[in-house]
Design a protein that fits this description.
Blueprint (H helix, E strand, L loop, with lengths): L2 H15 L6 H21 L4 H24 L2 H16 L1 H24 L3 H6 L1 H12 L12 H21 L6 H23 L3 H34 L6 H33 L7 H28 L2 E4 L2 E4 L2 E3 L3
Antiparallel strand pairs: 1-2, 2-3
Length: 330
Amino acid sequence: MREGKFLKNNINRWESYMQETEDPDTLANRFVNLIDDLSFSKTFYPKSTTTQFLNGLAAKQYSGIYANKKQKGNRFTTFWKYELPSIVAKYHKVYLFTLIFFIVFTAVGAIANMTDQNFVREILGDEYVNMTQENIDNGDPFGVYKNENEMAMFLSIAVNNIWVSFNVFSQGIFLGIFTLYKLLQNAIMLGCFQQMFFAKGLGWDSILTVWTHGTLEINAIVIAGTAGLILGTSFLFPGTHSRMHAFLKGARESVKILIALIPIFIVAAFLEGFITRHTEVHWSISLCILVASEAFIFFYFVLYPIAIKRRGISVIKGELFVNNQKVEFI
């Protein structure tokens, strides 16, 4: 084929390719076609202006694909800003149930210890209770947080908390029954622990000390329990989907919630390892950390998901939708 005929047959298509678009499928199709044309042109007209033109046009289409990928490829931001809150909003009722369940059994643990002061020993063990009593007698009731090196304590607590949350979550595979049991255990332990200090007149001190890190830690365990219940109930209550489809969907969404808790546990471990040990600091500093931690949990897991839901925002397979209409950005 003569170069003039090749040019005449394709010039209109090539000129249409010069019009900008951000649609990834269009860009990909253009690029594939241009590569074929460029290959043909290089074979038969290697030093012609047509080959140079096609080479430049193909490079431009490639840059468009790369730029489009870069714009849409920020999954990290999309996940934290839209996807996770939209998932949390779907399961707010499960979250509310889990929170109420945990609070009720925390109260049960506290009441049980008020009724029988030896109950705490059955729950926390003689060694821990005796150590705490010894610290109280020595005038340092929260000395347990000062026994280890800061970094070693931070790392061990972070690993332990992540493991506990994974354990609470994974038990959801058994229809959520064992997740509830793990939550019950942790709630009763917390109730006993807290009441032990109140009984010794150290209630306010324990709140300012323990809940400096405990606010994030306990809330994250409750949310891990929520993820476990989502995993279990997705099989029990599949809705209009098959049980397997509903279970796989619930598993994907609950795992995303669990992943989101990892940085929260790391921050909680940092506070426990490096901040909680400084019981001599002014109570206002501890209170500010406590309030800020609770405000973050309430905003990110309650208020913000509600706002996302009201705006009709959802993320499906990494794509952003508003009121079921696909959008590139908000």
